[in-house]
């Protein structure tokens, strides 16, 4: 069976490598072939092209446009629609897998006219994520239009996936007709890359000035819905419980956006890691941390959460993020911060120290 996989990301994006391509590799065989349509920002695509060829994936690309944001996205959608029509005409596609809202919009008309079924891999509702990232306001026309479009697409497709059980329960309560077509598929981790049995190479952190001590690591973007200030506020309190500690940011973003207090500036380390080095850097850490704006984040299962756990790290997270807080509490996987207050930070930090002492 030929499957067209549409993503509004670069093929080399870390999320596509860890989630999209890992998923495809697990399904591709003599019975299943994949055609991939992605939106590329960079002109140097030779390395990823070689990887895709080795996997037997037929790759089509469109150029990603970012400005002006709304019109650029609309333009990309129309270009994607025509590209999808061409792919369907050229290849015997039996299923279209859309990763996210924009790819689902792209696939809707070609799928409808060709009779090709669509699997809508929602990755949570984009409209709500945009509000949580302060990119949209809930009362705006853009939000209401996007939310209506997402529900329209859910009603059109024969099957769709969400990331969490909480999101599934909420959707079924709102729209019982979704019950037969909805599946929970959390963000997953490639345990061949992130193996808690493997010990990290301690020297890899020493290259960046991190010596002996407790290492808090944050992996990912510094902007949008991730609450960097609150993580630093928590660390400022937690650091007092340890003889020596560091906070390591593993990110491709510009570290200039970090507003670090002078009182612990020397304990903050920013690393722009290669994709290959990330498992080793996490395995060399002691704690994984992330705080996310909890606005309607019942639909979220962060990739970094699974990668922290697979690396053997206890986690520090805030409440309200998908199924994560329930799992952390019930299985003692780390600590959960409620409200972002010094009192809650102190309580969570004390629980974290005790957890580390228990091993």
List keywords for this structure.
359 residues, alpha/beta, Rossmann fold, 7-stranded parallel beta sheet, 6-stranded parallel beta sheet, 13 strands, globular
Number of E-state strands: 13
- What percentage of the residues does DSSP assign to strands (E)? 15-25%
Corresponding CATH architecture of the largest domain:
3-Layer(aba) Sandwich
Q: What is the arithmetic mean of pLDDT?
A: 89
Task: Give the termini separation.
Answer: 48 Å
N-to-C series of helices and strands:
EHEHEHEHEHHEHEHEHEEHEHEHEH
Q: Report helical residue fraction.
A: 40-55%
Low-confidence stretches: none
**Most strands sheet:** 7 strands, parallel
CATH topology of the largest domain: Rossmann fold
**Count of spatially separate domains:** 2
Radius of gyration: 21 Å
CATH class identity of the largest domain: Alpha Beta
As laid out across the biggest beta sheet, the strand order is: 3-2-1-4-5-6-7
Structural class: alpha/beta
């Amino acid at each position: 069976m030929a499957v067209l996989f549409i993503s509004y990301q670069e093929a080399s994006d870390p999320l596509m490598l860890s989630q999209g391509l890992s998923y495809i590799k697990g399904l591709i065989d003599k019975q299943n072939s994949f055609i991939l349509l992605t939106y590329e920002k960079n002109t140097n695509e030779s390395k990823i092209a070689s990887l895709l060829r080795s996997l037997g994936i037929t790759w089509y690309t469109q150029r990603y446009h970012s400005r002006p944001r709304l019109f650029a996205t609309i333009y990309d959608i129309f270009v994607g629609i025509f590209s999808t029509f061409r792919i369907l005409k050229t290849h015997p596609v039996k299923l279209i897998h859309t990763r996210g809202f924009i790819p689902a919009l792209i696939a809707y008309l070609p799928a409808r006219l060709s009779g090709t079924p669509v699997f809508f891999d929602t990755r949570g509702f984009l409209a709500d994520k945009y509000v949580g990232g302060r990119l949209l306001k809930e009362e705006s026309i853009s939000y209401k239009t996007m939310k209506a479009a997402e529900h329209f697409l859910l009603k059109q497709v024969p099957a769709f996936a969400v990331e969490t059980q909480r999101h599934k329960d909420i959707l079924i309560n709102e729209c019982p007709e979704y019950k037969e077509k909805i599946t929970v598929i959390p963000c997953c981790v490639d345990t061949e890359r992130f193996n808690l049995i493997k010990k990290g190479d301690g020297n890899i952190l020493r290259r960046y000035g991190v010596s002996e001590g407790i290492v808090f690591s944050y992996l990912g973007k510094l902007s949008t819905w991730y609450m960097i200030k609150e993580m630093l506020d928590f660390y400022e309190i937690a650091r007092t419980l340890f003889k020596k500690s560091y906070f390591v940011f593993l990110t491709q973003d510009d570290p200039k956006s970090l507003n670090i207090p002078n009182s612990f500036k020397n304990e903050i380390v920013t690393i722009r890691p290669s994709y290959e080095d990330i498992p080793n850097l996490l395995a060399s850490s002691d704690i994984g941390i992330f705080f996310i704006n909890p606005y309607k984040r019942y639909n979220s299962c962060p990739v970094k959460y699974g990668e922290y756990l697979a690396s053997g790290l206890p986690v520090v997270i805030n409440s309200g993020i998908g199924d994560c807080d329930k799992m952390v509490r019930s299985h003692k996987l780390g600590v959960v911060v409620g409200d972002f207050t010094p009192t809650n930070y102190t309580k969570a930090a004390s629980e974290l120290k005790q957890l580390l002492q228990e091993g």
